[in-house]
Amino acid sequence: MNDAGQLVLSGAIANHHAVAKALRRWLADLAVDCLASQLRSVAVEFGFDYARVQVRRQRTRWGSCSTRGTVSLNCSLVFLPPEVVRYLFIHELAHTKHMNHSASFWRLVEKLEPEYRRLDRELLAGWRTVPAWVFKS
């Protein structure tokens, strides 16, 4: 990133494989920096605790929470609106209390994010906003 907030690629830019690889590396670094701190802020705001966070490039999931308290986040979340990402954080953090999608889980999510149904629909539609280079090898 330059001072103007632009990502500048140089070198063999005609090599689409190399460019996509460089973009994925940039995306992974950006996602770790942004998402981990945002997750921590939401966790503190609502009094959740988790063991660790990992950011990965996943094709089918935006996030998950393990029974050991590891919250996994998809690096492609950086392409989604902040309110949708915040909802996903709340959803995954709620799994630290309820490791299922029971009525109790959804009541907790709704208490923390009353607009969760709309945001969940936006999250599911969010795959359309992820650039093709994220998943092409």
Could you describe the 3D structure shown?
With 137 residues, this protein is mainly α. It has helices at residues 16-46, 82-94, 103-112, 116-125, and strands spanning 52-56, 63-65, 70-74. A 3-stranded mixed beta sheet has the order 1-3-2, covered by helices on one side. Strand 2 and strand 3 (70-74) form a beta hairpin. Helix 1 packs across helix 2 and helix 2 packs across helix 4 (116-125). The longest helix has 31 residues, at 16-46. The radius of gyration is 16 Å and the shape is elongated.
**Major β-sheet profile:** 3 strands, mixed
Sketch the topology as an H/E string, one letter per element: HEEEHHH
What's the CATH class, please?
Answer: Alpha Beta
Low-confidence segments, given as residue ranges, are: none
Please render the helix and strand layout as text.
Layout: H1 16-46, E1 52-56, E2 63-65, E3 70-74, H2 82-94, H3 103-112, H4 116-125
Parallel strand pairs: 1-3
Antiparallel strand pairs: 2-3
